[in-house]
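User: Just a sanity check before I run the rest of the batch. Below are the structure tokens for the first item. I only need the designed sequence back.
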């Protein structure tokens, strides 16, 4: 089980507004964390925290290392960012929300969910449409469907931006205006 530390990450220093809109963790949760970590340790489950890295980054690294060592890996999270880490043998186990059913998302399910060709495009689609959870602005007026359409034609965010002048109409103007 991986936890964030209080230390800033490269994302926080490169983009000061990163996660700026996020609510602080409830005091009850913060107060319970030491006990939660003791319970996890009591089940002989390692607790891993690395200053300078988000827990997501640590989970991704461990998932790929475990896969490369021959394990089938399930990352337990509801976080859509994990879609970029999925590959054959590495899946997301998304717990059910408020009594709903759990989901297991492999590469095919992640691609179908976002209407993209490969999981590497998860980063690009979130970059184009923005990610309110992490306070990533994206391009104003570009939502999920438009972002998927742009990626179907240009493959990557970098190619979309490089071809902004070639995108016709209001969408092209939005991409030009939102390049930064």
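Assistant: Here's the designed sequence for the first item:
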């Amino acid at each position: 089980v991986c936890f964030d530390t209080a230390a800033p990450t490269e994302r926080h220093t490169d983009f000061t507004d990163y996660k700026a809109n996020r609510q602080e963790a409830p005091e009850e949760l913060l107060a319970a964390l030491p006990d939660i970590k003791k319970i996890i340790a009591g089940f002989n489950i390692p607790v891993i925290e690395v200053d300078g890295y988000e827990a997501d980054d640590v989970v991704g690294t461990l998932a790929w290392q475990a896969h490369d060592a021959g394990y089938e890996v399930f990352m337990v999270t509801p976080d859509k960012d994990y879609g970029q880490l999925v590959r054959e043998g590495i899946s997301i186990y998304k717990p059910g929300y408020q009594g709903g059913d759990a989901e297991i998302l492999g590469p095919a399910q992640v691609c179908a969910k976002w209407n993209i060709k490969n999981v590497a495009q998860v980063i690009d689609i979130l970059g184009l449409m923005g990610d309110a959870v992490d306070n990533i602005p994206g391009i104003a007026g570009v939502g999920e469907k438009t972002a998927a359409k742009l990626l179907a034609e240009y493959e990557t965010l970098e190619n979309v931006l490089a071809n902004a002048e070639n995108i016709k109409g209001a969408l092209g103007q939005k991409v030009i205006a939102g390049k930064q």
